[in-house]
Every structure is written in C-alpha cells, then in structure tokens.
C-alpha cells in the first residue's frame, strides 16, 4: 500500500496516518478478509519505535495498547465512562463479552535500530450492521440510564484513539508493562475465565493475565503458568478454548 512506501520517505518527526471511509480489501489476522462498510472508523497509522526501548523489546504489546486506546477514546469522554466497551486478547474490541466491534492488525519492519510499525485498526461507530456499533451502545445507555449522550463520529474517535495511543506509548516506554496493564485489565474480558488447552478434550486451565512480552498466561493445575503466543494460537471465546491455528 501507499502508506507502506511513504513511511520510509518522510522525516522521522512527521506522523503519517491514512483514513478510509470504506474498505474492500482489508486484511485481518491469519490472512482473513476484513470487509468494512460505511460508518466504521478505519485507519492505518505509522509509528517508529526504537529497538532498544521498553516497547521495542516487547513489540507484541503494541496491539494491546491500540485496543486499549480505542476503548479509552470513548470511555475517557466525560459522561461516556460506562459505555460497555472491552478488549479481548490479543487484538479485538468487544461490546461487553458478547460481540466483536472492532480489531487491530500490526505489521512491523526493523530497519537498523528502529521498528517501523504499521497499525491498522477499525471499529464500528455508526453502522449497526453486520453486528453492532458504538453509537448503538450509546443509544442503549441513554435508554437505560435516562441520559442524553450525543452519538460520536468516526473522525473524532480516530483522532482520540491516536492521542490516547501516544500517551500509552509514552507511559510504556517510561515504566514498561506495569505502567499500562492495570488499565488494560480494567477493560479486558478474560478475568477468571476457564479454557481448555490444545483441543476440546485438553487439560483445563485458567487465564491469569499477560506476561512481560504481551502473551496470554494460563494456569494449569499442577503444571504452573504457561504463555500462549498469539501468532500460533487463537482464543476462541465462543467455545471457551485455546486452539492451535
């Protein structure tokens, strides 16, 4: 794509973002096709991360920071704190623990001592189909709580997401994972969930959290804690399994 070529041509201090109204050839994890109708917030953002930095040594954390930034783009607005947005490991944004509302895809290229990161993120803002959108959740909240919160625009939420992400990266670079994990756990859907490892008849385990590299940690009784890598496993919430991809 054009942004992938431009990112090596621009001065390091210059930011680069591409915003789309619709997407017909979007890509998801594992080669999945990502079709996005009008009403979605769709962006590809370029950032540079030094290799010898807290985040440069833990690149998988970027997808978690972006997912958190999307959620906090909404919940950091006064009055919108209780809109039911959550993060699902490793790269999804959810309505409660019920329905996917968006996702994140990260590609990285190491050039000398700098990671050039392309972050694609998209989430439903004003499109009720094919699932549900943020403005549906706001309308639901207004009905249930008697409030009059205004619907939000895709452009506004893209801008807020980038602003929140910049702050999260700064905190991570200064303090490491522990600087952001309390915020992440506040919104994630997996606390105390039980899963089975490697198949429906596999051993039972409990989700513990995220390790120092951003991988999922599970505790298997009698076996201790082990990490599950997102590039080799997919957490299938509907079947409550961790399954090989």
UniProtKB/TrEMBL annotation:
Keyword ATP-binding (UniProt): no
Q: What does UniProt give as GO cellular component?
A: cytoplasm
At the top level, the lineage of the source is Eukaryota
| Pfam name, any one | BPL_C
Look up the coiled coil feature and give its residue ranges.
none
Keywords on record: Ligase
Recorded hits in NCBIfam families, A to Z, give: birA_ligase
Q: Which family does it belong to?
A: Belongs to the biotin--protein ligase family.
* Name of the protein in its database record: BPL1 ligase
What organism is the protein native to? Loxia curvirostra
Upper lineage is: Eukaryota, Metazoa, Chordata, Craniata, Vertebrata
